């Protein structure tokens, strides 16, 4: 694939971004981003927390955007990527609990969970979204690969990119997260 084809493919994916709200209601991307910014500003004003989760490259994005949002937008954030925490929970309770168990112990109603998963099917991500629902958290999900993935149904806002490769999914998710951060900073 040439560079121009790659750029065009990514542009097409981002232009066809699908966003749904509770119950699968369709939202325009601009409406969804405006709502995400509004919710984030409310969380910041109330001194609530935004939790970020993901596996592999999505874990790196979770860490990256947790740091950027805390540093640049002054929002309290937390990410569950500490190796001791992940391995302790994974070993003692099962890997599917590495996000839900710390979330259960730390999160409070009104906080937000941002879940990043290319497949939208990772058991540990889905376990965390169930816990977030139980705790009364706002939820934002970023997924790809399959239009019927379960993460697409879990959130207050659900961002879906019809990417079929991890590279395109991850690049698209990074663009979505950067747009949210830029909008928080008035740069979008």
Task: Provide a concise account of the structure shown.
The chain has helices spanning 3-15, 29-45, 57-73, 83-93, 100-106, 123-135, 166-184; strands at 18-20, 26-27, 49-54, 76-79, 112-117, 138-143, 157-160. It has seven helices and seven strands, in the order αββαβαβααβαββα.
Task: Please give the structural blueprint.
Blueprint: H1 3-15, E1 18-20, E2 26-27, H2 29-45, E3 49-54, H3 57-73, E4 76-79, H4 83-93, H5 100-106, E5 112-117, H6 123-135, E6 138-143, E7 157-160, H7 166-184
Parallel strand pairs: 3-4, 3-5, 5-6, 6-7
Antiparallel strand pairs: 1-2, 1-7
Helix pairs in contact: 1-7, 2-7, 3-7, 5-6
Radius of gyration: 16 Å
Oligomeric status of the shown chains? Answer: single chain
Low-confidence segments, given as residue ranges, are none
Count of DSSP-assigned helices: 7
Largest sheet: 7 strands, mixed
Across the major sheet, the strand order is: 2-1-7-6-5-3-4
Number of domains: 1
Task: Write the CATH fold name.
Answer: Rossmann fold
Q: Given this structure, which CATH class is correct?
A: Alpha Beta
Shape category: globular
Class of secondary structure makeup: alpha/beta
Beta content comes to 15-25%
Q: What level of helicity do the residues show?
A: 40-55%
Compute the number of strand runs. 7
Overall mean pLDDT stands at 96
Distance between the termini: 30 Å
CATH architecture: 3-Layer(aba) Sandwich
What is the assigned CATH homologous superfamily?
Glucose-6-phosphate isomerase like protein, domain 1
Give, in order, the helices and strands.
HEEHEHEHHEHEEH
């Amino acid at each position: 694939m040439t560079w121009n084809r790659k750029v065009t493919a990514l542009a097409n994916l981002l232009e066809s971004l699908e966003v749904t709200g509770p119950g699968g209601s369709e939202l325009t991307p601009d409406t969804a981003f405006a709502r995400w910014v509004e919710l984030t500003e409310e969380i910041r004003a109330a001194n609530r927390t935004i939790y970020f989760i993901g596996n592999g490259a999505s874990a790196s994005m979770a860490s990256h955007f947790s740091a950027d949002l805390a540093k640049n937008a002054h929002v309290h954030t937390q990410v569950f990527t500490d190796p001791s925490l992940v391995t302790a929970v994974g070993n003692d309770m099962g890997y599917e609990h590495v996000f839900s168990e710390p979330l259960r112990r730390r999160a409070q109603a009104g906080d937000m969970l941002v879940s990043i998963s290319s497949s939208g099917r990772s058991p540990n991500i889905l376990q965390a979204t169930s816990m977030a629902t139980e705790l009364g958290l706002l939820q934002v999900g970023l997924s790809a690969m399959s239009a019927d993935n379960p993460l697409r149904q879990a959130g207050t806002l659900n961002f879906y990119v019809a990417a079929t490769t991890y590279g395109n999914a991850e690049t698209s998710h990074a663009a979505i997260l950067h747009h949210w951060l830029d909008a928080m900073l008035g740069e979008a």
